[in-house]
Amino acid sequence: MQLKPMRLFTPAKINTILRILSKRDDGFHEIFTHMVPISFFDVLTLQENSMKHFSFRCNLRELEGPNNLVWRALKLFEEASGRTVRLIIHLQKRIPTGGGLGGGSGNAAATLLALNRWYDEPLSVKELQKLGEQLGSDVPFFLNPRPTLATGRGNILKTLQNYPLGEILLVTPTFNINTAKAYVMCKPRMHTHSIQPTTLTMLASEIENQFHESLFSSYPELNKICQLLLEFGALAAAVSGSGSTVFGLFDDYQERNFAMIKLQELTDYTSIPCKMLSSHNYFSSQN
Prior knowledge:
It is a single chain. By secondary structure, the chain is of the alpha+beta class. The protein has two domains: about 5-160, Ribosomal Protein S5, domain 2 (2-Layer Sandwich); about 165-275, GHMP kinase, C-terminal domain (Alpha-Beta Plaits), CATH 3.30.70.890. About 30% of the residues lie in helices and about 30% in strands. The chain contains nine helices and eleven strands. The chain has helices at about 70-80, 105-120, 125-135, 140-145, 180-185, 200-205, 210-220, 220-230, 255-265; strands at about 5-25, 30-50, 55-60, 85-90, 150, 155-160, 165-170, 210, 235-240, 245-250, 270-275. The strands form two sheets. Strands 1, 2, 3, 4, 5, 6 and 8 form a seven-stranded mixed β-sheet that branches. It has a four-stranded antiparallel β-sheet with strand order 9-10-7-11, with helices on one face. Strand 3 (about 55-60), helix 1 and strand 4 form a beta-alpha-beta unit. Helix 1 (about 70-80) packs across helix 3 (about 125-135), helix 2 (about 105-120) runs antiparallel to helix 3 (about 125-135) and helix 7 (about 210-220) crosses helix 8. The longest helix has 16 residues, at about 105-120. About 45% of the residues are buried.
């Protein structure tokens, strides 16, 4: 059992392709999506607690409590492993909630991995994946984040080898979008499958989000942000997931930073520079 504090960076993701194919009998939707981790992180810290129970704290007080995915992941881990967690867990949130970036799912995956490491790995990879599916469709992806094709309800994963990686500018408007509401507004449609892109130019031509059809009419500001990103040099621009965060794809950081400066001059949107990642190791920074 580890005694030193453990600190993990939990990444966000973008959906470079997102298609809603059909409504499933279980209430979820059949999807086809490319998910890619990006270098924008929350921070999860675990340390010993002298009390006989766990303590969960977050820099955003409204996110504390049993509905948080960190809390729920911890409880599932206790049930599956038979361990009683007596740790102080702190979550430093940077990834916006309701932004389509998978921040909560990444927090849940990191919690499962961290607890399993702390308590000497009582659960196998497959057991962790099953727990992840109970927490949310994106959680299994975040257990081993890398460019991935996700199908089913998002839980059937296939790694996309040699995926082209570009610079990203995230733009967050002042509003959030409820995921369940976004799915209600989006009309499923069957598609032909895409060819995996091998260059940034090919990736830019493939980027799409089926939510645009309904989101742009309800939230015209999202379309405005996409158009500004394209005007300022992005190869492509789209909403990530069901929104509300928009991302622009760039082929180098100088063009991305130029676009960020132009956006800051013209708008009050929050802009976050980052890049696409080929993989992410939660424990690489551990001492």
